[in-house]
Write a structure and sequence with these properties.
The chain has two domains: about 10-40 and about 315-450, no CATH class; about 55-70 and about 85-310. It has about 475 residues and is of the alpha+beta class. It is elongated and about 100 Å long. The strands form three sheets. Strands 1, 2, 5, 8, 9, 11, 13, 16 and 19 form a nine-stranded mixed β-sheet that branches. It has an eight-stranded mixed β-sheet with strand order 7-6-10-4-3-12-15-14. It contains eight helices and 19 strands. α1 packs parallel to α5 (about 350-375) and α6 (about 375-400) runs antiparallel to α7 (about 405-425).
Length: about 475
Amino acid sequence: MSLLSTDRSPGTKLALAIFIGFLLSFPLFTVWLLVYDRQQQSEFARSSIAEGWGGPQVIAGPTLVIPYRATTSETVTENGQQVTRSRQVQRELTLSPEIADLSTEVRPERRARSIYEVVVYDSRVRGRARFAMPADLSQLAVAVADMDLTRAELRFGLTDPRGLGANPRIRVGGRTLRLQPGGGSGATGGRGFFAWLDAGALAGQPILVDFEYEFRGNGSLSLAPQAGDTRWRVHSAWPHPSFQGSFLPSDRTVTADGFNAVYRVGNLALGQSLVSTGAPGAAPPPPVVTDEYGPRGATPPGGQLAQIDLVQPVDLYSQVNRATKYGFLFIGFTFLAFLMFDVIGGVRVSGVEYLLVGAGLVLFFVLLLAFAEVIGFAPAYLVAAGAIAALNTAYSAAVLKSWRRAAFIGALLAGLYAVLYVLLSLEAYSLLIGSLMLFVALAAVMYVTRNLNWGGRTDDPETVETPVTTA
């Protein structure tokens, strides 16, 4: 029997609708790939807009690094005998501040190219840190006499130094230090800047460091806390922050005019000592920097960042992607309505008509993506939904031979598009609402078709002929 034939049993018509729905899964999957491709192009365009401005930034420091001499022993074999030799090596003592108090102002700015937009920012950091020589250096086998305090380095970390402002200012004891590129901090992969410092005063009293610098970045701003007591205050005019990372602010306020956040992190929460030793020049891996498209880079020791993302309130690609996943729901409900008109109402619907209506439903998601990139998601949804609902309603009037029946199809599509918009808005309840819709639809079909003979055969005993037997 041909698929295009209209002389079919109800069961065959159901199988035909399911088969055409399966065929439509291929263009639906292609639409999903199209959304993914456009999302990747958008990310590339955003990266090119922000190129040279500065990437997602992680700041760290200051830390004080003091070179010292250490004696190591090694055992070697010479002429068949074990010989122990001692030699002096150069190592670095890294000292984190007892207290680091930072204040950061983040000034966001939208930058656009064609239909793509990215959020960049200028930021200013002011702060003070206090260093003191620990009393338990002997436990690290380090003596003050072995230290070269005149060659100490005060290091600051910044993951993308391209965004660093022109005039960072670092003062110790009222004296401004001359800065050098590089050095950085382990939490930022060794990138940043440093200053030479004569740390001889550490032997007797704490060193107070005042610092102020500006930098640019985009997407997110993070702090890698390292002090015994880190206090970080952040203020910005951006009204849509997302607080991420290993530490959340102890106090925060978010309004339409911006946000304020206060972090308080101790080294006990970090799980690390204020003093560490190691070979000079050893650079740990770079930190994790995340945005709405996922993580970038590797994880620093412990992966401990206080991170603030300047997120866009509406990510149209993720919304279109989620809408596409409900494509089968649209096809299923619409085909079900046509099937009921076919098997219950007596209106013949051919396979080609199923296919054309389904193609219109798939086209909705393409229109939604195309318009959303230009006019935004909500207006694009209204335009695409109205166009496809009107198109399928007009076509249904010809297929079902009645504008009254076509009005039912139009109302069904309008309801489905309205429900889908609610599902996209209420992400937490989308599964619940979708499953309830399927339950109601299944119950309605079971009720309407409770007396339907899907096989098309007559099984009424009164109509079955009884064979006559003769004695």
